[in-house]
Write a structure and sequence with these properties.
This protein is mainly alpha-helical. Helix content is 70%, strand content 1%. The chain has helices spanning 2-28, 33-54, 61-108, 153-164, 171-183, 193-213, 217-225, 236-252, 254-258, 264-276, 287-306, 310-332, 334-343; strands at 142-143, 186-187.
């Protein structure tokens, strides 16, 4: 009966998580595909647990009927969520493409000379000897192929991972390391680009160092080596989640990098919503490591609220959202989720 109660409480937790997901998505006006995939993994696990519960003896018929309906509903949700995730991923890709198209559209709308040999004239009607060059639209930021390790964080962290890979399982640290590398692939003429890269990079390096050198992460990753072969390369889907998360981070900083008006409180509100929806996963996962990530998210949010520089406030707010999204990405990937489950005593 105690086991049954635990599983009923799990259903209630899942139910509240789904409600928060629906409401926060409505407020944000968009759906995070990584969060959807994370929920899907949780739904599958919960459904399997309930099905196992139904196989136990001594469950009242009325309770079994209700649980059977819950299983049916969870199965229906499982079939819908991947479709929602795919649409959300397509929406993220479209938004990036639309930015490019809008720039091209603006270029096409620039007034052109009419008539053969027509020349632009000034206010006095004098034809200039040299035709003025059309002003080019400056990109607020762009991604390049090779990362720029300006502060040495990539090389230092890479060396740390190599050093500890002899005794620690390094797939989780590698996930955060690849996010660090991805950040350094972005460039911008904005004077705020240094903070936009360095601030989240420092959060990521703290997470990696904490996993490898501090309790309980170091011991858990060492113990994992005895039961799981070493893995130090991410899959295609794992990398795609990182790339989308970092791309969304910079999209959130577009106004800042353009030098336009900042809406600080709106950004902080978005960060708070992301933090409220932080992905803890199910009871089968090792929560101590997840708690460390949650603490880093909370620190970023507190910095967004307390910093006196509005530019840095916006960056900290977007860092909060980035870390939360990366955590959802971990929970959405079966291999990474499996590692967290294996580490639980």
């Amino acid at each position: 009966m105690e086991d049954l109660l635990d599983r009923l409480l799990l259903i209630e937790t899942l139910n509240s998580t789904l409600i928060h997901f629906i409401l926060s998505s409505q407020v944000a006006g968009s759906v995070d595909p990584d969060r959807v995939d994370s929920l899907t993994q949780g739904l599958m696990r919960t459904r399997k647990w309930i099905e196992e519960t139904l196989s136990h003896e001594g469950i009242p018929a009325s309770t079994a009927n209700i649980l059977g309906l819950v299983v049916k509903r969870l199965s229906q949700l499982e079939s819908l969520l991947p479709k929602l995730s795919q649409k959300a991923k397509e929406a993220e890709q479209r938004s990036a493409a639309q930015e490019i198209l809008s720039l091209l559209d603006e270029s096409a709308r620039r007034p052109a000379a009419t008539g053969e040999g027509a020349q632009p004239t000034g206010a006095s009607g004098i034809v200039p000897l040299v035709e003025a060059e059309p002003e080019e639209e400056t990109e607020p930021y762009r991604k390049v192929e090779i990362e720029d390790d300006e502060w040495g964080l990539i090389s230092q962290t890479s060396q740390l991972i190599r050093q500890y890979s002899k005794r620690c399982h390094v797939l989780l640290p590698t996930f955060w390391f690849e996010a660090l590398r991805e950040l350094h692939k972005y460039q911008s003429p904005s004077p705020f680009i240094a903070d936009a890269i360095q601030i989240p990079a420092e959060f990521l390096t703290r997470i990696i160092r904490g996993l490898l050198t501090e309790a309980p992460g170091a011991r858990l990753l060492q113990d994992l080596m005895s039961s799981r072969p070493q893995e130090n390369t991410l899959s295609t889907t794992e990398m795609e989640r990182i790339e989308r998360a970092v791309a969304k981070y910079f999209a959130g900083l577009e106004d800042l990098l353009k030098g336009e008006e900042l809406h600080v409180q709106e950004k902080i509100s978005e960060a708070q919503t992301a933090f409220d929806g932080f992905g803890w996963g199910g009871p089968e996962l090792e929560k101590r490591l997840i708690k460390r990530i949650n603490q880093r998210c909370e620190e970023a949010l507190q910095s967004a609220e307390s910093d006196t520089d509005p530019h840095r406030q916006v960056i900290y707010a977007e860092v909060t959202k980035l870390l939360c999204k990366l955590q959802h990405a971990i929970l959405a990937e079966p291999r990474l989720r499996e590692i967290l489950a294996q580490m639980k005593p």
